[in-house]
Amino acid sequence: MSIFIDKSTRLVVQGITGREGFFHSAQMLEYGTNIVAGVTPGKGGEWVLEGKVPVFDTVKLAVETTGANCSVIFVPAKFAADAILEAADAEVPLIVCITEGIPVQRMMKVQHFVRQRDVTLIGPNCPGLLTPGISKVGIIPGTIAKSGNVGIVSRSGTLTYEVLYALKLKGKGVSTCVGIGGDPVNGTDFVDVLGMFEDDPQTEIVVLIGEIGGSDEERAAEFIGDHMTKPVVGFIAGITAPPGKRMGHAGAIVEGGTGLASDKITALRKAGVRVADWPGQIAELIASK
Amino acid sequence: MSIFIDKSTRLVVQGITGREGFFHSAQMLEYGTNIVAGVTPGKGGEWVLEGKVPVFDTVKLAVETTGANCSVIFVPAKFAADAILEAADAEVPLIVCITEGIPVQRMMKVQHFVRQRDVTLIGPNCPGLLTPGISKVGIIPGTIAKSGNVGIVSRSGTLTYEVLYALKLKGKGVSTCVGIGGDPVNGTDFVDVLGMFEDDPQTEIVVLIGEIGGSDEERAAEFIGDHMTKPVVGFIAGITAPPGKRMGHAGAIVEGGTGLASDKITALRKAGVRVADWPGQIAELIASK
Amino acid sequence: MKLHEYQSKALFAEHGVPIPRGAVASSASEAIVVAQDLGIRVVVKAQVLVGGRGKAGGVRLADTPKEAGELAARILAMKIKNLPVRKVLVDEAVEPITEIYLGVTNDRSANRPVLIASAEGGVDIEDVAHTDPEKIVRISIHPLLGLQEFQARYLASAIELPRDYWRDFIRISRGLFEAYVDSDATLAEINPLVITKNDRLMALDGKVVLDDNALFLHPDLAEMRDIDEEVPAERDARKYGLSYVKLQGTIGCMVNGAGLAMASMDVIKLMGGEPANFLDIGGGASAEKVTAGLRIILTDPNVKVVLINVFGGITLADEVARGILPAIADEKPKVPLVVRLVGTNEEEGQRLLAKAKMITVSTLEEAAQLSVDLAKKGNVE
Amino acid sequence: MKLHEYQSKALFAEHGVPIPRGAVASSASEAIVVAQDLGIRVVVKAQVLVGGRGKAGGVRLADTPKEAGELAARILAMKIKNLPVRKVLVDEAVEPITEIYLGVTNDRSANRPVLIASAEGGVDIEDVAHTDPEKIVRISIHPLLGLQEFQARYLASAIELPRDYWRDFIRISRGLFEAYVDSDATLAEINPLVITKNDRLMALDGKVVLDDNALFLHPDLAEMRDIDEEVPAERDARKYGLSYVKLQGTIGCMVNGAGLAMASMDVIKLMGGEPANFLDIGGGASAEKVTAGLRIILTDPNVKVVLINVFGGITLADEVARGILPAIADEKPKVPLVVRLVGTNEEEGQRLLAKAKMITVSTLEEAAQLSVDLAKKGNVE
Fold first, then answer.
1. How far is CA A240 from the centre of its chain?
2. Of A18, A41, A137, B171, which residue is the least packed, with the fewest Cβ within 10 Å?
3. Do D163 and B60 touch (CB under 8 A)?
4. To the nearest whole angstrom, how far is the Cα of C100 from the nearest Cα of chain D?
5. Nearest chain B Cα to C279, which residue?
6. Which residues in chain D have their CB less than 8 angstroms from residue A240's CB?
7. Which of A24, A112, A227, A249 is an active site residue?
8. A57 pLDDT more than 80
9. Chain D interface disruption, residue of C144, C148, C182, most D CBs within 10 A
10. What is the ipTM metric for this complex?
11. Contact D150/B85, CB-based, under 8 Å?
């Protein structure tokens, strides 16, 4: 078992003819993901990726024609909020938005709309989903992970790769890796994913990778303490980040006393989470379980 | 039994110190309605109506202090949408808006917000509710109706009084009279109220008073045909109204071929409704049942 | 409140919708100046707030400024459906390759705005709706979120607009929707939206109906009201906050409440009479308002009898009586009045009327029957 | 992106928020002119994008234009927290009776805007939040519906503002919220909002932080960026779309991804080193971007060693190598570079680095340890 994606996932790629969309569609196809459609307004009727994938003008038409049940979004930030709304309007049940840089007020509106529908949004500004050996939706390199019993949920992108890679080197495999994204407003949070891992029979241990800013990790700690029976290993990036400085993406700001890495680590430890001091230590803690 | 209001209704009057709010609060008090609070921003702390009713600055405070469970709104059109939102935000379960002239786009937004909460809005631009002998919330003259087994739902104001009065002259009484209002966008429609009358043990026969414009009566006809076991008598005002002319309030416009009185009458008759040719005939049809 | 074509198009242009170059003119000489400035073939279009101006000859092409002046003079002398033409719009003539319909209005059944498009533009969209309903595409708009880009794209795709025009179509759709929102319109439509010979999308004609209840938010738009276009009696009624519509019958009606007013007219007709007007004095009317309403009815030469039907609720019966009496004292009407006055403060109202020896009855049906009888008698005399 | 006080207040004023009369000045003579125009007692305020200017003597009262000029000259010669003062705001001096805090920002945990007010204005609101949290009132705003009048009224009532000021307070709250929405701000605050001696509400100081991701929607606001206020290296980084923050240590870092960049800094610190900066080259960086990033690090004189940590995903390892090599060729750095390069196209990247005889390691921990060792060695030399 895995969470979010499996062999029944039928993927539509929004922005499939763009540079990044095209590159990663090829990567996903190669990994075995079942890409059934692409969407680029104005290019409906074309076929891409060696004639394997039909392109549509609208998500609605793509869904009606191909039965797509999952969408991944690579369109530029300027159009990405509209792309999420289009997918939600077309009732695509799972939407993964890779795009970085969506204005936050716009994203608050989009998130409110999406939450009122029976639709799950992952991201934006996230690396997506990887269920090793089965399917990947997004940009996580497929080669750095093998299948196993570790569930990973992370606000970070490359730091997640670092952890996946270290686990693989230690011989540990992953059930599903979920990049929820580093933006201040996102569709799916730690608690949502932790609950799914708790219910997933394949997952036996969970890795949570957080970073400074916001209070998602604190809420995750509360959830872990109250509801999780499976062991959780954590890491929080930014223990040395100076307060008030913007560190790369909007999620990583220490806001007025809350959002500090040290507070998050304390909260997680209180909830019984073993928190690593450096990323490499995560794999050691998992291996030593 | 009655619908919407009964002896447990604890009313807060928004706009209680205004001319109409004050006059009708006095009328409602005299009728026996339990007015527990008034709201006029900036006049909190005063007492009105011979010291019987305390005034608050906000609905929230009024509800917290007095346990009000119903609100009636008399504030001017310019502020009425805000008044509805304030009542909904304070989780007043039943809101009756008498005010006429709220801009329709604003009202579409308000209605969308209200529908997402566990709150019932009646109106705007409506005469309100009357449960003869028990309670009245709004402006329907209490003296023209007595208690009985006829449920009335109407888009009109004074035309409803005409019918109530005629019924009383024929010795027929009313369970509850519901004025849903004549605006194109309103909170509660015919179908909502018909369903409640169908379930109300006191109500044995229902009067539906419609008018030209929109398609509420057609949807009501469908509901009656599919779900109502109790007999329904109807009347539609505006059979002689020329198409395209604005007849007094925004609801009463015949829009491009739909909304005609004749279509509505046909739809109701098909659903088994006895439709009166003139208002006075309603009482005759009821009496002859 | 309806806006003229030239006002509607100016509103659209403020929101980025391309419109032809042009200007409004009130005289032949003004029209010549505009045509000279444009320097090309022009179209001279009557500005009236009713449909059917094309068929009436109110839209004409002119090759020269002189011809534009002549046509303007001719059109400005016309009446279209009884309304005198007081302004013409002189626009550059545009040759359309394709004519599209694009409009936004309130969808009453969904309580949301709806954006409507059809590849069959340039004609009456309601005719298309009847004959080829599948040629009309609708997109329901979230009342809080507003029109989204993908929705405009759906429309473009659904009406099979060539893709080269999608970007412009989306921009225009958003502009139109913005105009609708910013002006609190109940209808904003472009018909036709054309593709021109040089491959541009352009709004050739426009129509906007504003929400009268929202005019207080838009004093600039409220000022655009063309009072010349109103029947004087309707203008007076508006001044007093009365809702008045002139009709063709002989029985003047003054009623409180729109539903009751319509029902009163219906009963008149059922009894064999014809109402001369719709007049709703609204709720809680003052004596002054009643007086003004009655005066407006009495100025209609068609009126043979006046029926007053008031069911007091928020309206006070004695206040209504106090409004009727001065109008009668001043106007000394030659036609009979039938008054039905019940409800709040009925006794005092009735006392005042009795003192003035007015004809009073107790039910609507009686009032209607008597009015119809008196109107017929009036016709015989 | 932060706006200056004078920019923030101008933005508020556009939305109907009353502000003192005044103007910005870049020299003593300009300040004198402004003070003369105002004709009354003025306050001269340093315009810098850091807090604490009051304590630093950057806000002073002047009774005469001459005094205003003298104070302006003195303040314009100051540095506040290492930032030179390049502009002063000369405002009419206002005597406040009451100081209120009013702000709107994004509530991350609710994914909604939040309007915040406190009767304890004029001080650091975060201090109030720590010492008297009950003195801060918050109202959560519906993300689609926006601030409603009744919500502003709740705030006025909750901070016990005398009722005479409610109407103005509501108007100002709505203006502030509009400014926040229209500018895509992440923070818009008035502190203090004062009641003046002549009974007016007025925004004496203002602060706006804009969402960098939304600046493309607001070219007029983007132009307000005060590049004089940026560290030159940060300005260069922004030009190339790099995320760079200068810090005080000796180990320069270049990493892809914010989380990995922070983690790399954390590991450096854990190993006993101090990072000289945060630098995130982002996802899918081009060789040019990498070159630019490395150049920026190498211009920092504190840097004793450079750690490059790239985990290729969307970023291609060979492309990164192709960016590193020209920077080294051009800059001929005197400090050592430690490169850890894995992931997509790793082999080709490693081959290029090996050819250039770069120090490469395979894990982050190794890279950090080696960098710390080299930095310490550098210090000893």
1. 25
2. B171
3. no
4. 30
5. B248
6. 262, 265-266, 268-269, 275
7. A249
8. yes
9. C144
10. 0.91
11. yes
Kindly report the nearest CA distance between residue A289 and chain C, in angstroms.
49
CB A79 within 8 Å of CB A54: no
Q: How does pLDDT run across D1-12, given as a tens digit for each residue?
A: 899 999 999 999
> H/E element holding B59?
helix B59-66
Chains that touch A (3 or more CB pairs under 8 A): C, D
| pLDDT for the residue numbered C124 | 76
Nearest by Cα to A182 from D238, D257, D264: D257
Which domains, and CATH codes, for chain B? 11-122 (3.40.50.720), 128-287 (3.40.50.261)
- With b for 16 or more beta-carbon neighbours within 10 A and e for fewer, the D173-209 pattern comes to bbbbbbbbbebbbbbbbbbbbbbbeeeebbbbbbbbb
In this structure, the number of other CB atoms found within 10 A of the CB of residue C176 comes to 29
Question: Are C145 and D144 a contacting pair at CB < 8 A?
Answer: yes
Which residues of D form the catalytic set?
Answer: 101, 189
Check residue A256 and give its pLDDT.
Answer: 45
pLDDT 10s digits, D48-89: 988 788 888 999 999 999 999 999 999 999 998 888 899 999
The region, left, alpha or beta by phi > 0 then psi within -120 to 50, assigned to residue B227 is alpha
Q: What is the mean pLDDT of residues B107-127?
A: 95
- Furthest-apart CA atoms within chain D: distance in Å: 78
Q: Which residues of D128-143 are buried (b: 16+ CB within 10 A; e: fewer)?
A: bbeeeeeebbebebbb
D162: which chain B residues are within 8 Å (Cβ-Cβ)? none
Query: Under an 8 Å CB criterion, which residues of D touch B?
Result: 142, 145, 148-151, 153-154, 157, 163, 166
Q: Which two tokens stand for residue C306?
A: 């006046």
Q: What 3-state DSSP class applies to D20?
A: coil
Q: Are A204 and A176 in contact (CB under 8 A)?
A: no
pLDDT at position B256 over 50: no
D144 and chain C in contact, CB less than 8 A: yes
Cβ proximity of D204 and D193 under 8 Å: yes
With cut-offs at 50, 70 and 90, classify the pLDDT of residue D233: confident
Q: Which chain C residues contact residue B144 at CB under 8 A?
A: 343
Cβ-nearest to D150 among B44, B86, B109: B86
Domain C96-222 coded CATH 3.30.470.20: yes
Please say if B249 is a catalytic residue.
Answer: yes
Q: Are A233 and A274 in contact (CB under 8 A)?
A: yes
pTM exceeds 0.90, yes or no = yes
**Residue numbers in A near C152 (CB within 8 A):** none
D347 chain-A contacts, CB cut-off 8 A? none
Phi, psi of A37 (to 5 degrees): -160, 160
Question: CA of D66, closest CA in chain A: separation in Å?
Answer: 39
Q: Which residue of A has its CA nearest to C170?
A: A41
Please state, in angstroms and as integers, the Cα–Cα distance from residue A72 to each residue in A80, A122, C202, C290, D222, following that order. Answer: 11, 9, 36, 66, 31
Distances (CA, A) of C43 to A178, C74, D51, D254: 63, 14, 63, 66
User: Residue D68, CB half-sphere, CA atoms under 13 Å: how many?
Assistant: 32
Cα angle: C330, vertex C331, C332; to 5 degrees = 100
Among A58, A79, A109, whose Cβ lies nearest the Cβ of C154? A58
Q: Do residues C338 and C361 touch, judged by C-beta distance below 8 A?
A: yes
Asked if residue C195 lies in contact with residue C156, where contact means CB atoms within 8 angstroms, the answer is no
Per the CB < 8 A criterion, the answer to whether C353 and C362 are in contact is no
Looking at residue C54, its pLDDT comes to: 86
The CATH superfamily of C21-92 is ATP-grasp fold, A domain (3.30.1490.20)
Q: In this complex, which of D111, D126, D217 lies closest to A111 when CB atoms are compared?
A: D111
The answer to whether the CB atoms of C166 and A42 lie below 8 A apart is: yes
